[in-house]
Design goal:
single chain, alpha/beta, five-stranded parallel beta sheet, globular
Length: about 130
Amino acid sequence: MADGQKIAIFPGTFDPITNGHLDVIVRGSVLFDRLIVAVGHNPPKRELFTTQERVVMIRQLLEEQNVHAEVEAYTGLTVDYARHVGATAILRGLRNVTDLAFEFQLALTNRAVADIETVFIMTGEAYG
């Protein structure tokens, strides 16, 4: 933890970013001293936009909405990136119980393997 800051990452491909993602970012940005929207690449997914295009789009959107969060591209394992930036939490949005079932297992693994917590935020009703 850098200088006692509570740092979290919100990882995803964000291809493209949705109102649901934005909802989680806005609400998560007030929970942490530093929130990094971590834009990753998922090889099995066919991308609409390049990673750099997504980073630029998200930065512009957050600036327009006056949301205090950073946006960075990353490669490799999410937990490795979290360690690299000194994050103590991974922020995840949940839309329904199906999301919870998947995310729960991932959260347990991340805590066991990398000693990193996962913080869940339920998306707003309009985005479920």
